[in-house]
Design a protein that fits this description.
single chain; alpha+beta; 5-stranded antiparallel sheet; 5 strands; globular
Length: 181
């Protein structure tokens, strides 16, 4: 029998409090975390596909899932990029893995970021989703510093079930997400 992730338990415990705070009548209208998408874009990968192997290794290590290769949607002559060339990797986390990753990110990776002052409350996209960028993937404790070939960044998108940014922000605050004051 598998145990419930800590943040999922926190969500279940705080749902009544969140319902009252957001003045929602129906439990089904409460904002939920649907998925977390991790993305590494490697611009130089169109010249040398081997560059993506390190990105795949790093993303597999921090997510526990095999990433999907992302390809260029259209050709851009200025970047010497052709349609269909691999340019990045991404992975989508849901359920138990999603909550465990978010817990590790908030409590372990974020405190390791140099000069961290909090995430901007303005990074919502207008549809209740929040995107963060880490300049160095080595802030995640799973990454072995000695095995890193190049310093690469990772984009993290938190996708919620609400279209309201303020509801999504209230949800993330309940998870003790470190927003700037």
């Amino acid at each position: 029998m598998s145990s419930m992730p800590r943040l999922e338990k926190i969500y279940q415990d705080m749902s009544a409090e969140l319902k009252q705070e957001l003045e929602i009548n129906n439990v089904m209208q409460l904002p939920k975390l649907k998925k977390i998408v991790l993305n590494i874009g490697q611009g130089a990968a169109h010249q040398n596909v081997k560059i993506l192997e390190g990105a795949v290794r790093d993303l597999t290590t921090i997510s526990g899932q095999k990433p999907v290769m992302r390809r260029a949607k259209k050709s851009i002559a200025g970047f010497k990029l052709r349609e269909g060339q691999p340019i990045g990797v991404s992975v989508t986390l849901r359920g138990k893995r999603m909550y465990e990753f978010l817990d590790r990110m908030i409590n372990i990776a974020v405190p390791r970021v140099r000069d961290f002052r909090g995430f901007s409350p303005k990074a919502f996209d207008g549809h209740g989703n929040y995107t963060i960028g880490f300049k160095e993937i080595i802030v995640f404790p799973e990454i072995d510093y000695d095995k890193v070939d190049t310093i690469r960044g990772v984009g993290v998108t938190l996708v919620t079930s609400t279209d309201n940014d303020s509801h999504a922000m209230a949800l993330l605050k309940k998870f003790r997400f470190p927003f700037k004051q």
